C-alpha cells in the first residue's frame, strides 16, 4: 500500500491534488510505523460489561513539520495522534550551496523528556534535517524520529555522522542525488508538487 502511494507521488503526471492525497495517506502509514515504539500507560476503565485496563500514550510526541513540504504531512499525523502538540521549522535550501536557510522557528523552549516526530517528505543531502534535528537537540530533545517519504544514501549517512539522537522511518531509500542535489529517481520537488512553484 505504501509503495502504491509512493508510485503515485513519483509519477510526473500526478497533479497537485492527487499528490497531496497520496502524501496524506502515506504519512498515515509512516506515523503508524513510527508510533510502534512510543511508550504507553494503562489505566482502569469500565466497559458496559466489566472493568478492564485501558491503554493510552504515556507521552504523546511533539509533531514538527518542516515547511513547506512537511506541511502536507501535518494533518495526517495529527489525525492519528490527536493528543500531540505541533511545532514548526521553516527551511529553504539554497539552490547553489544546497545548505538550508532557516526562516521560521516555532518550538517549545524545553524539549527534555518529550519524543519528537519530524515530518519532511525528502531527505536529500541531509542538510535540512540535520539543521532541524540540531535545533531540537539544543532544546534538550533526546528522542527524535524523522519521518520521510524518500531518503538518499548521502542524507542517511550525514544524519548518522551527526551523532544526533534520532531514528529514521522512510518509505524508500533511492539511488542517489543528481548534480542539483535532487533525489534520483525521486519525485521532484515535494514543495512545488504540492503547492506550486515559487
Ligand atoms: C526540500 C525538502 C527538504 C529539503 C531536502 O525542501 O522538503 O526540506 O529540500 O533537502 P536536503 O536534504 O538536501 O536538505 P526545500 O528547501 O525545497 O523547501 P520547500 O519545502 O519549501 O519546497
Automatic annotation (TrEMBL):
Pathway(s) where this gene product acts: Pyrimidine metabolism; UMP biosynthesis via salvage pathway; UMP from uracil: step 1/1
Cofactor: Mg(2+)
EC number: 2.4.2.9
The keyword Cytoplasm is assigned to this record: no
Enzyme class: transferase
Molecular-function GO term, any one: uracil phosphoribosyltransferase activity
Keyword terms of this UniProt record: Allosteric enzyme, Glycosyltransferase, GTP-binding, Nucleotide-binding, Transferase
Family to which this protein belongs: Belongs to the UPRTase family.
Protein name, as recorded: Uracil phosphoribosyltransferase
Gene name per UniProt: upp
Amino acid at each position: 500500500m505504501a509503495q502504491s502511494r509512493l508510485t503515485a507521488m513519483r509519477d510526473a503526471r500526478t497533479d497537485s491534488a492527487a499528490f497531496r492525497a497520496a502524501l496524506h495517506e502515506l504519512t498515515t502509514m509512516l506515523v503508524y510505523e513510527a508510533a510502534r515504539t512510543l511508550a504507553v500507560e494503562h489505566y482502569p476503565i469500565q466497559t458496559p460489561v466489566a472493568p478492564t485496563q485501558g491503554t493510552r500514550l504515556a507521552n504523546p510526541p511533539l509533531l514538527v513539520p518542516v515547511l513547506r513540504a512537511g506541511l502536507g504531512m501535518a494533518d495526517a499525523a495529527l489525525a492519528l495522534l490527536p493528543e500531540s502538540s505541533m511545532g514548526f521549522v521553516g527551511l529553504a535550501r539554497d539552490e547553489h550551496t544546497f545548505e538550508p536557510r532557516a526562516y521560521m522557528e516555532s518550538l517549545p523552549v524545553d524539549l527534555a523528556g518529550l519524543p519528537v516526530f519530524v515530518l519532511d517528505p525528502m531527505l536529500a543531502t541531509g542538510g535540512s534535517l540535520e539543521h532541524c534535528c540540531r535545533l531540537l537537540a539544543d532544546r534538550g530533545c533526546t528522542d527524535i524520529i524523522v519521518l520521510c517519504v524518500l531518503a538518499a544514501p548521502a542524507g542517511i549517512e550525514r544524519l548518522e555522522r551527526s551523532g544526533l539522537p534520532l531514528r529514521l522511518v522512510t518509505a524508500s531509500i533511492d539511488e542517489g542525488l543528481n548534480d542539483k542535489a535532487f533525489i534520483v529517481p525521486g519525485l521532484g520537488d515535494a514543495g512545488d508538487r504540492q503547492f506550486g512553484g515559487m
